[in-house]
Amino acid sequence: MPMLYGVWLLLRCLVFDYFTIPTSSMCPTLEPGDKVIVNKLLMGARIYSNLDFNLSGQELESWRTKGLRPLRHNDIVVFNFPHHDWHISFVINNVFCKRVVALPGDSLSIVDGHYRNNNYEGTLGLEEEQRKLENTPDSLLWQPLLPTIPHHERFGWTIRNFGPMYMPRKGDIMTVTPYEATLYNIFLAWEIGKPITCDWDTGEVWAGDKLLKRHCWQHNYYFMAGDNVLDSNDSRYWGLVPEEYVVGVVGYVYKNNTL
Fold first, then answer.
1. Could you give the CA distance from residue 29 to residue 18 in angstroms, rounded to a whole number?
2. What are the C-alpha distances in Å from 33 to residues 24, 30, 36, 166, 236?
3. Which of 8, 137, 218, 252 allows an S-S link to 37, with CB 3.0 to 4.6 Å?
4. CA distances from 54 to 50, 60, 61, 163, 237 (A)
5. What is the Cα–Cα distance from 84 to 44, expressed in whole angstroms?
6. 211 and 166 Cβ atoms separated by less than 8 Å
């Protein structure tokens, strides 16, 4: 029995894992109670180099085995939720399940509630759910649901009309003005290790006490969205997901009503 249990744990670490869907954010694709089997072979299994987990949040210390392919548009993935108290940190079992609607190097927009991606011509997510958002008047929406990142008056982005927002790609060199400093604030702070501030009047940006004019991105970032666009806590509200935080791609679904 101990050997079988060890093999089971090894398979869960390297090959697959399973999770139960707790909310309606991916409806009707995934419903509460559905179980998803996550394939870790596709993008490579994540191996922790530090098992001393802090449930209050910490830096993720891990490396990834060689995968079979990168993430693709419309993949449904499980990932560790990366945003805690408006900074990036890792909490071991705090996981979400969403759809990939933008990859590193993409520019994503929302036009009248519909996702638009400069590098993808097909439908992202479920067109019928986005049509519901398009046809639902603001008066019938819970008003706090409308504003999106970066939650700043100079942007005014909403779940109806958003962007375009570029998805940083590892190795990209980006000019940093107050616009970028506001839009990517917590990601810049995480990568540089210093708080990011800016002055819109002078156009200056600081990382700590040093002027910041350009930044070379150290990570790949993804935009994750729930199919149930009227009721999904996703990247529209809290931002992007670093590649290291992705657990794997959903490969199989056990529907709750068949169990």
1. 17
2. 10, 9, 10, 34, 24
3. 252
4. 11, 10, 12, 35, 25
5. 26
6. no
pLDDT, residue 145, reads: 83
Cα pseudo-dihedral 112, 246, 167, 212, rounded to 10? 130
Could you give the residue ranges of the DSSP H alpha helices within 123-253?
A: 127-135, 178-183, 185-192, 235-238
Peptide bond into 104 cis (omega under 30): no
3-class secondary structure, 73: coil
Instruction: Determine contact, residues 66/29, Cβ cutoff 8 Å.
Output: no
pLDDT in tens, 48-90: 998 899 988 999 999 999 999 999 999 999 999 999 988 999 9
Angle at 215 (CA atoms; ends 212, 216), nearest 5 degrees: 160
Place of tokens 């560790």: 80
HEC string for 152-213: CCCCCCECCCEEEEECCCCCCEEECCHHHHHHCHHHHHHHHCCCEEEECCCCEEEECCEECC
Read off φ and ψ for residue 188, nearest 5 degrees.
-65, -45
Domains of the chain plus CATH, in order, are 2-158+222-258 (2.10.109.10)
Please indicate, yes or no, whether the overall pTM of this predicted structure exceeds 0.85: yes
**Cα(73)–Cα(33) distance, integer angstroms:** 25
119 within 8 A of 106, measured Cβ to Cβ: yes
Structure confidence at residue 13 (pLDDT): 74
Spatial distance between the Cα atoms of 239 and 41, rounded to a whole number of angstroms: 26
Residues of the chain with pLDDT under 70: 1-9, 11, 258-259
